[in-house]
Specification:
By secondary structure, the protein is mainly β. The protein has a single domain, classed as Beta-clip-like. It has two helices and ten strands, in the order ββββαββββββα. The strands form four sheets. It has a three-stranded antiparallel sheet, with no helix packed on it. A hairpin with a 2-residue loop joins strand 8 and strand 9. The longest helix is centred in the first third of the chain and has 7 residues. The two termini are 30 Å apart.
């Protein structure tokens, strides 16, 4: 499998145009087969603390960043030095997925994508115990698919109820944990 170009050259199998999901989106210009590596998500590599300084979720009317969390320390901010991959929108029924290899992020097709179809992946932002209805609204999903969960936050994990086991809450995470996936909504 050949590696995608990092420079955003026109040999990419998609083009950027207006999207019904959110602002601009990436649309296939030719058939893309399952397993195809489409593009690398690139941008400035910063710490989670730097991302928190740049993007304050509490002051935003709606969430909109181009962040992608690579690991616990590193975030890619595609608003700085990024390419067109930052316009691949979220969907609850995606046709692509993000794959992290050796600290690099690639977008790959998970199903057959026909020309004209919008490329999407599930951002699945890390869901914390402190996420409430306000968080659901801030991280609203507009994919419009039949299984839309209404948010770009990861699906809620099923909890096991047991009368003999007391469940402890996870350590409260800061807003930077929300940069789990790139935030181009």
């Amino acid at each position: 499998m050949s590696s995608p170009r990092r420079d955003g050259a026109s040999d990419l199998p998609y083009e950027i145009r207006r999207s019904r999901i959110q602002g601009r989106g990436a649309f296939a210009t030719r058939r893309i087969r399952p397993g195809a590596r489409i593009v690398e998500y690139v941008g400035e590599r910063i710490t989670r603390d730097e991302a928190d300084v740049r993007y304050d979720d509490t002051s935003m009317e709606r969430h909109h960043t181009f962040l992608f969390a690579v690991d616990d320390e590193t975030v890619i901010d595609a608003a700085y030095g990024g390419n067109s991959s930052r316009y691949i929108n979220h969907s609850c029924e995606p046709n692509c997925q993000a794959v992290i290899e050796d600290g690099r992020v690639f977008i790959e097709a998970v199903k057959n994508i026909q020309p004209g179809s919008e490329l999407t992946y599930d951002y699945a932002y890390e869901r914390n115990d402190d996420h409430d209805e306000e968080s659901e609204r801030l991280y609203a999903c507009h994919c419009g698919t039949p299984s839309c969960r209404g948010t770009i936050l990861a699906p809620r994990k099923a909890t096991k109820k047991s009368s003999t086991t007391k469940r402890t809450s996870k350590t409260k995470r800061t807003k930077r944990a929300r940069a789990k996936a790139r935030g181009a909504t």
